[in-house]
Amino acid sequence: MRRGRVFFFLAFILILGLAGVLIVYRFLLPRTGPAPGETVTPTPQPIEILYVTQNISKGTKLDASMLAPIPWQESAIAPGMFTADQIEELEGRIVKYDIAAGTPLVDSFLLKENEQLPSAGSPWALTIPPGMVAVSIPVNRIANVSYAPRPGDHINVIVNLAFVDVDTDFQSALPNHTGLALSSGPPNPETGAPDPLTVGVASLALGGGVNAETGEPQTPSRLEIGIAGKTIIDPVLGQALYVVPSERQRPRFVSHMLLQDVVVLQVGDFPLPGQEVQLGQATPTPSPDEVQQGGQAPAPTAPDVITLIVRPQDALTLNFIMMAQSKMAAQLSLVLRSANDNSRENVLPVTLQFLLEQYQIPVPARLPYSLNPRIDELSLP
């Protein structure tokens, strides 16, 4: 009887231990595999694509030694890329453009079966991808990043604009100028008909109207053009006051990132006919003998124009802004991108309100004291 009770207790303890082990294994230990009935999503494996291992000039026949495979995410593969198993198909294909080392090979870089490499025309047109165009814009030292960009660099284009309010009918800047109101005068003593050009009401005119002694129309001696203002109620006197602006309308400025990841085709002017150089070839440096014979070597001229490869719609946009820039109504400036950066940021346009809110710049309060002497303009000491 006592022995059966001992076996019962031992069996009960063993069952509790097994239950505890099952709970720890099922709920407390981290899972190393899928739960029963759980579907496992396989991790996509990268696909090897071909890239160029060295700089290749246009017209070169491809060889297997010029290409190498590199892992690439399947979701990031662009149309026209070649996979590693297609390397034999590329043997002997002719390159249409200059390709820099490290660039993934795309089908648009190569000549088609019946396509010929153009032997005439501008050599720079061969470097413009299909569907793109080249446009030149004027730059100075500040707008051109202190002359840092070179052909092949990637840049962003910033536009700065100034806005003013205009009259929708006149298309002239507000406020409008006041003019004269003309009405019929007294009857003409001879004909009895009223004079239709008699000045009845003159805005901001000295003299004019009707002579008080003779009753004859009087031409204003001097007219002063006024500015259309507005009527306000003085909060202290409770009377209406007519106020006019103390200065002309101040423009409102905005700065915005217009284009991103734009390729530079040329910095400065292209060589003229008779001065043609090979694409990508540097301008030859005069030898010491040439410098000695011709005197000092001419100083390099700072470029005042830069040529960009853009989409046709972007070319029209830049052309419109250049026309506004010629009248100082807009301004273009460039920023240089990293050599390995092809990302595009969702940037916000900058206005005075954005500047104050984004960077938490407080507007100074009106204090009962100030600096002496007064400071109207900021300048470096």
Number of helices: 4
For the biggest sheet, the summary is:
5 strands, antiparallel
Quaternary structure classification: single chain
Would you tell me the structural class of the helices and strands?
Answer: alpha+beta
The spatial strand order of the largest sheet comes to 3-12-11-4-13
The average pLDDT score comes to 78
Number of strands: 13
Beta-strand proportion: 15-25%
Overall geometry comes to: flat
The H-and-E topology, N to C, reads as HEEEEEEEEEEEHEHEH
Termini gap: 108 Å
Poorly predicted sequence stretches spanning 5 or more consecutive residues: 197-207, 277-285
Estimated radius of gyration: 40 Å
Q: Which percent range fits the helix content?
A: 10-25%
Outline of the structure:
The protein is of the alpha+beta class and 381 residues long. Helix content is 15%, strand content 21%. The protein has helices at residues 2-28, 288-294, 312-326, 352-358; strands spanning 47-52, 67-72, 133-138, 154-163, 180-182, 199-202, 205-207, 220-223, 230-233, 240-243, 252-267, 305-310, 330-336.
Overview of the structural elements:
- The protein has 381 residues and is of the alpha+beta class.
- Among the domains are: 47-117, Type Iii Antifreeze Protein Isoform Hplc 12; 118-164 and 251-272 and 302-364, no CATH class; 175-209 and 223-248, no CATH class.
- 15% of the residues lie in helices and 21% in strands.
- It is built from four helices and 13 strands.
- It has helices at 2-28, 288-294, 312-326, 352-358; strands spanning 47-52, 67-72, 133-138, 154-163, 180-182, 199-202, 205-207, 220-223, 230-233, 240-243, 252-267, 305-310, 330-336.
- The protein has a five-stranded antiparallel beta sheet with strand order 3-12-11-4-13, with helices on one face. Strands 1-2 form a two-stranded antiparallel ribbon. A two-stranded antiparallel sheet has the order 5-6.
- The longest helix is centred in the N-terminal third of the chain and has 27 residues, at 2-28.
- It is flat and about 140 Å long.
- Residues 197-207 and 277-285 have low confidence and may be disordered.
